[in-house]
Design brief:
The chain is α/β, with parallel strands linked by helices. 28% of the residues lie in helices and 22% in strands. It has a 7-stranded parallel beta sheet, covered by helices on one side. The protein has a 6-stranded antiparallel beta sheet with strand order 12-13-14-19-16-17, covered by helices on one side. Strand 7, helix 7 and strand 8 form a beta-alpha-beta unit. Helix 8 runs parallel beside helix 9.
């Protein structure tokens, strides 16, 4: 299911589990790896370490994706551990820790490009103290491989929490030379109003993007640099939901899919300052939910799959005089042969939109994909027939009139020149 979804980058280890993660305990003979308590959340589950660095890299080969490795960043010894991890993953096979990797059955360097420094480290220490540790870790890593891309930790979305104030500004002011990108996490709570609920993620994305533009304009250390945002965790909060699929593993509903699609729309609009967006793959906030014997794609996972495979790659400016509550984005396909138009309708009313293309003309038959359901609380469940699916339709008679069903996510592919 993950392969079908087409995700291109996976982050490991994810979440607060990354802080205190010792990569050496998760390589080599799996029967000799020490188990440890996973104390990132609250149940203190035992982590077997059977799925470690090399297993993760093999998994990426199976799903055809790129690694994004996160190193622990909570104490001074983490600098050496991080540098050694870079050497293990990226070093030549015949020397140092590259030789250990080769002895473990993986002679070729993995050439990991993206490296995150800790996760939500504003939970652990104040910015003044953390900045020195961040710089120390990055310096040690870059001595091993100066080509790596460093992703720092932001805290803009959490600066209402005591002790987190000005975290992002401090990081960008003092450590701009020690990062290439900076991460942000978004977890808005649910809303009873469907239209408001569908806009919550998008609103948070917009606030973070506007804040980043402000920093890029105002802060002297950012001048001449292109430090952009990595939204490497985002979804609706799990805290007001039943944890059906393990720690922080809630069920998501069709109403959440409407909000995830609208959130992606906002990322497309803000793509000048947003570099990457990641989502949890399995169970924890995940797009695939599992039992011991079954698995099912979440309704929110359908959104990721739809846009990954069918939305264009070059965003096009969209303005509207009558879209009402609809959220509309457009993009050219990479080969510039078709215009893709995506529309989220979070209301119980259907609409018809009229396209007025500037400097382009529709040329022939097209396609339409729709995710829709009459019940905003509809969901997919492992072991049961899917209640929400992606419907594909052929369009033989292309016109400028686009039909938008009630409670729907519609993605049009319209051949154009």
């Amino acid at each position: 299911m993950l392969k079908e979804s087409g995700f291109t980058v996976y982050r490991w280890p994810g979440g607060t589990f990354a802080n205190g993660y010792h990569w050496r305990e998760a390589v080599g003979d799996r029967d000799r790896r020490p188990p440890r308590l996973n104390m990132a959340y609250w149940s203190e589950d035992v982590e077997s370490n059977d799925f470690g660095l090399d297993e993760f890299m093999t998994f990426l080969q199976v799903v055809d994706a790129e690694p994004y490795i996160v190193v622990s960043a909570i104490e001074e010894s983490d600098a050496q551990m991080a540098a050694e991890e870079v050497e293990y993953l990226n070093g030549p096979a015949g020397e140092g820790l590259g030789a250990l990797r080769a002895a473990n059955g993986h002679p070729e360097p993995y050439n990991v490009r993206f490296w995150g420094i800790g996760n939500e480290t504003w939970l652990v220490m104040p910015p003044a103290e953390y900045l020195d540790l961040h710089i120390q870790i990055v310096e040690a890593m870059r001595q091993v491989d100066p080509t790596i891309q460093i992703i720092a930790v932001s805290g803009s979305g959490f600066e209402g929490i005591p002790g987190v104030s000005d975290w992002t500004k401090s990081m960008l002011t003092r450590a701009a030379d020690y990062m290439n990108l900076i991460s942000e996490h978004i977890y808005p709570p649910s809303s009873n109003d469907l239209v408001e609920h569908s806009q919550k993620i998008a609103r948070a994305v917009r606030i973070n993007a506007e804040a980043m533009r402000g920093y890029r304009e105002q802060l002297e250390p950012l001048q001449g640099k292109d430090i952009r945002l990595v939204l490497d965790e985002w979804n609706y909060s799990w805290e007001d939901r039943a944890q059906i699929y393990g720690e922080a593993g809630p069920r998501y509903f069709f109403r959440d899919a409407l909000g995830v699609a609208t959130g992606l729309h906002e990322m497309f609009r803000q793509s000048d300052v947003i570099f990457m967006a990641n989502t949890h793959p399995i169970n924890v906030h995940g797009q695939v939910k599992t039992t011991q014997t079954e698995a099912a794609i979440e309704v929110t996972g359908l959104v990721w799959e739809l846009y990954r495979h069918h939305f264009g790659s070059l965003p096009v400016a969209v303005s509207s005089t009558s879209a009402g509550p609809l959220d509309v984005v457009a993009a050219w396909t990479e080969d510039h042969t078709a215009l893709t138009v995506a529309i989220v309708n979070p209301t119980a009313s259907g609409y018809t939109l009229t396209l007025d293309l500037k400097n382009a003309q529709l040329t022939g038959a097209g396609r339409l994909w729709v995710i829709t359901h009459s019940d905003p609380m509809a969901y997919n469940e492992p072991g049961q027939p899917l209640r929400v699916v992606i419907e594909e339709r052929s369009l033989s008679d292309i016109s400028s009139e686009l039909s938008v069903p009630s409670l729907s996510i519609s993605l049009y592919e319209l051949p154009a020149r």
